[in-house]
Specification:
By secondary structure, the chain is an alpha+beta fold. Helices cover about 15% and strands about 25% of the residues. The chain has helices spanning about 5-10, 15-20, 110-115, 130-135, 180-185; strands spanning about 25-30, 30-45, 70-75, 80-85, 95-105, 155-160, 170, 190. The protein is globular, with a radius of gyration of 16 Å. The protein binds a DNA duplex through strand 3, strand 4 and helix 4.
Length: about 200
DNA sequence: GGATCGATCGGCT
DNA sequence: GCCGATCGATCCG
């Protein structure tokens, strides 16, 4: 099975954010294959993006965004959730793409086990329709921070069917009210039109 | 259906 | 000491 390579990610971030839609994210967990189609992404671009973790310059946490493309940036937020990002563009230009939602494909039983709290079954729609949810479903945490996703093991991407521009929508990013008005308004969130697993409709 | 709010902790000022 | 690239429970209609 072909794998998306570093060249795919080392391009302008908006291009990569659009092109990631429809690709298949694969997580290998002790030989078990959990996977889903990427249906929603968000771009965080450059030192002047006041919504980005890189807005205050380089720190220990965000230094990875200044490094080579094709590695996972996984961080912990709100005291309980993880977010999966992929570093893009060229070194020394801080940029990354947040994976916001998946359409579950293989391994849905395991995703259920990772996601459910009590013993109550979870509706399939709630497995991976949000950035915190998909990390929980695929067992992605800080141990995968800095992991190169171009190696074809543990965590990687496989090409899906190309999507026509007509199938893709763009709009403002979510949860960044602290940013400047221009950055809040920038249409740097992308999703597949009409897909049920997009986090906000 | 929508609005509101608490959980919970690491990173940064 | 503050606050967040979120989620789910709860309350209201």
């Amino acid at each position: 099975m072909p794998i998306l390579t570093q060249e795919f990610f080392a391009r302008p971030t908006l291009t990569v954010a659009r092109d990631l839609l429809g690709q298949r994210l694969v997580r290998d967990l002790d030989g078990q294959r959990l996977s889903g189609l990427i249906v929603e992404t968000e771009a965080y671009i450059g030192p002047d993006d006041t919504a980005s973790h890189a807005r205050m310059g380089r720190t220990d946490r965000n230094a990875i965004m200044f490094g080579p493309a094709g590695v996972a940036y996984v961080y912990f937020i709100y005291g309980m959730y993880h977010m999966l990002n992929i570093v893009t563009d060229q070194p020394d230009f801080p940029a990354a793409i947040l994976i916001r939602a998946l359409e579950p494909l293989t391994g849905q039983t395991a995703m259920q086990a990772h996601r459910q709290k009590n013993n109550r079954p979870l509706k399939p729609i709630n497995l991976t329709n949000g950035p915190g949810k998909l990390c929980q479903a695929l067992a992605i945490d800080r141990r995968l921070n800095h992991f190169p996703i171009t190696q074809g093991h543990t965590l990687w991407l496989e090409p899906g069917d190309p999507l026509p521009d007509q199938a893709i929508a763009a709009g403002p990013r979510v949860g960044i009210d602290y940013a400047t008005p221009e950055c809040v308004a920038a249409p740097w969130r992308f999703w597949i039109k009409g897909n049920r697993f997009v986090s906000k409709r």
